[in-house]
Amino acid sequence: MSGYLIDSNILIVSNRNYRQDFFPVVWEFFKNNEDVFITNRVYNEIMKLDDELCAWTKANYKSRVLQVENAVSEYGRVISYVTSSGKWRPAGYEQWSSDANKADPWLIGYALKYGLTIVTDENNTGPNGHPTNNEPKIPFVADYFGVDTINFWELLSREHFKAQ
What we know:
alpha/beta; 5-stranded parallel beta sheet; globular
């Protein structure tokens, strides 16, 4: 499988900054690009919003929801890394390890197993020599596992998107 897994924040931020009524071209891009997927954990996070984005996701992505349970072993590797690397204190890593519904570690695990690129608006920042209480960031942890991460603009560039 090749393609992209999108973080829920990409859709949430896009919905805020590129409202569907004013920028339909962005939403057509997401809808029509068959290489863009979401995981069931991301889908469930968006369903909690019960708003325009929730309705759009239900209508357009229900058939592109990937089941993260196929990557349990890889998810375990991600959780093991954040809990035992010494880079995060419990206050940081427990944000991922204490909630099996938290989408971020599953996103990395699934991308690791299937060679997918993660699209996220998070910066590649991490602990700078001292354990931190901050939540792990997707790009920092994904980089450890050799998983490619890009932002929204890089996705558009890679897919040769042009607003018409």
